[in-house]
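INPUT
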Amino acid sequence: MATESLSGRGAARPTRALHAALSGRGAARPTRALERALTQPISRPSAQPLIELRGAGVTYPGQRSPALSAVDLAVRHGELVTLTGPPGSGKSTLLSLVGLLLRPTTGSYLLNGFEVTTLGDKDRTALRGRMMGRVFQRPQLLASRSVLDNVMLPVLYAGVRRPQRANAAAAALERVGMTHRMHTLAGELPAGEQQRVAIARAIAGNPSLLLCDDPTASLDDMAAAEVIGLLVSLHKGSTTVLVATRDQLAAAHSSRSLAVDPGGSGKFAGDFSQ
Amino acid sequence: MIRRRISQPTRLRSADAIGEACTAILVKPARAVVASLGTLLGVAWFVTALGLASTAGAHVTSAFAHRLPTHVWISPKRAGPAPPAVPYPADVQQRLRALHGVIAAGFFWPLRRGRPVVASGPGAARQAPVIAASPGFLAAAAVQLSDGRLFDAWDQAHHAQVCVAGTVAARALGIRTLRKQRTVYIDNVPCVVIGIVSSASGRDSIQRSVMLPSATAIALWGPPDERAGAMPALLILTRPGAASMVARQAPLVLSQDRPDQFLVRLPPGPGPLRGQVISTLNSLFYALGWVSLAIGTLSIASVTWLSVRERSAEFGLRRAVGARRRHIVAHVICESAIVGLIGGLAGASLGVTTIILVARARGWVPVVAPLTVLPAPVAGTAAGIMAGIIPAMFAARIQPAEALTRSLAA
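OUTPUT
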């Protein structure tokens, strides 16, 4: 049985044994099969990609041209993948798609080997809340709430009681080195520290997938380097990290860097399957 | 050992929902004050209106009480088999006085023997009608004297030949004062005038008549003569407001077998009028209360709506980190309900204060039913919940991907 401490450090983070679950793919009861898949004790790394997009595209309602068209992408467990590309190339849309904030209008999305495109809101919300952490371009902190309150937010919806929430949040803050600011109002922090708090919030629920949408965009070089360093260290703790960035430093640390190409129907120039 | 069950639905503990809502309110106290102001005024008005309605109602009741009927007349019905000469039990006065609300009761009948009543002394014969009455009747008619005394139980027992003259009768008989003894002749029987009436209530005929003790009248002329129409009637004096109840009970006291053989008359009181005045006041106050509560609800709704719009990025964030739509709904409705509760509590306090101040200024006794004040916080909460429904639905529909492109305002 795998144990995961809230800090997420320690033994190599196991990936999932999904083969049993995969045999149930296409079954009529996705929720139960999915639950079985995701509750499997995680014992060994798997070659199965964590994220697999197959010709996934997104067209926003009321718009003719797709924001993202026919993307094939595979990200394995424990990878740090950076997405690069000019603004408007669809990086954010891709991250929203992967982060279950959008549904693909074409193609399919397999998360952990399971089709999540057609899942109901309840299950998608559950996956968002319990499996993913996310960092946005702006820190998106509740400015008039304390740092601790902000970091506790995702754990709140895990139904965890307040003392345990506070413990989880404190552990996350320790990992980003912000323990000393725990009781400060989030709005009073400088931008770099706010983004670190945002990262703490993203990892407080101990997600297996961390999605970062240009986390260094609003930071100066110094703060940006700190944030990149943090993400890299989290990745070394074997969290799968997907970063959309223009930061060369991030790209340098990544296992793969994929360029998102704004032109053409296949917006991604790279072959993401490999 | 933590086994990860990722697809287990996310949840929001109710204590956490309330806690989050409270924190959100405390973070922006001014907004909560503004939002609750409408409800506060609405609930305050409601409490004030209801409280003033009951206070004013109580006041109107006491004002009208002075004009309530205090006399009940009872007489045997003429129709039907020949009733007994005196259809009342012998102890009728005691029985009636035992009724709650009865001050005095007595019977009387007019003597219509066809013979004039003649005053003694010089001059032409002067006449006045004669009434046989029990001492209780004089008390029930609240007879006040300008001179002399009333006849009493002793006079009754001894068939004393005495009488009391009404003001008009005394003038007609040429009697102004009792400084020297005056005697009138009733059917050639001399009777000493022992009192002159100054005021009496219940019937004008008292002032026009000469009254002598009923026992004396029976001893002299026998029981009242039915066929002459001289049927004995009862006059009951009640406390204010008790007349209608006494009117219902008295026939049963007189005859348990045949309470229907009596004709009961109650002078028309202001009862229906009073009821109309109070119900008009009440319905007006109620209507204004509902209107103001509705305005209060709308004010919470609009402030909550603005707050939700302003915080769409926050709700988008909450959705992104695991809040289900129903969690957002619960969160928003909790907030508006708490604002409503605050408004309800403050409004109830303000309302009670207003009632006391108004009542004090008007010199009324404040009357506030607990049922007016205690549901006020509940009403405020209910208003808050209703106000929160539409904004909550809006908040639940926020698309996180879109909302998060905006910056968090809160």
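end of record. Confidence is low (pLDDT under 50) at residues 1-30, 40-44, 263-274 of chain A.
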